[in-house]
Amino acid sequence: MFSSQLISLSANLFFQSVVKHLLTQGDAMMLAAMSSLEDQGIYFLASNYGGLIARVLFQPIEESSRTLFSSLLGLSDVNGENPRNIEAAKTHLTDVMKAYGILSAFIFPLNPVIIKQILHLLGGTEWAGSEVYRLLSLYCFYIPFLAFNGITEAFVSSAANGSELRSQAGWMGVFSACFALAAYLFLSVGDLGARGLVYANIVNMTVRILWSLHFIREYMHHHDNDITLTELCLSPHTYITGFLMTTITILGPELFHSDSHGLIGTAGFCASYIILM
User: Which residues make Cβ contacts (< 8 Å) with residue 89, sequence separation at least 6?
Assistant: First the structure.
């Protein structure tokens, strides 16, 4: 009734979905096993609110990009290699990656000061100076990693054949081991609580992004359309400015008070950074 190729592809995708589900739920299992109830509550508060950005902003882009990649690269597989389709997929990927890079350049330096003001408005000084603020600020640093992983894996899932999907599923197991090891080191050894789990998730996303970028580079090279790092990255000026501003917000949070003067200072800081960018 069904071709063996279709059954094999379906099995690969099913196994990959199971591994991704375990990775998605792994943070809850690790947190329940290695942290206190207070840390669990704070983490889920931060992940629920921080995850809204990923679900509302990045998920539609990821799904529409997956559809576009499947259309362009699938046609190339069915009708033979089409350089225009490969180039169109590459252009879309680099455009989205650069857009995410620009957004990240704003998120990293500005999120601690903006989050502090928002929490002060919602919960007063107790929230603005509590572990909730520190964890939510850290979780916002994690969101760009989610975005980059989403778009790169969308390309991989659209471009990979059956054997490559099996290889990716195998590597997912390696990524799970990396996450478990990082979670153990940050939670049990480092005793960082909920923040340790965010660090472990960042490690997990980093290795997944690196693997996807390696696949994309090899895929493009195979189709005689090499992709370089400069096509994916922003200008050095952007990175230097973002790094300096991020350092200021991390090392000097007391500079941004929650009163009216603090609001003015925060607005001035944000405006100055936008102008410098």
Answer: 68, 69, 72, 73, 155, 159
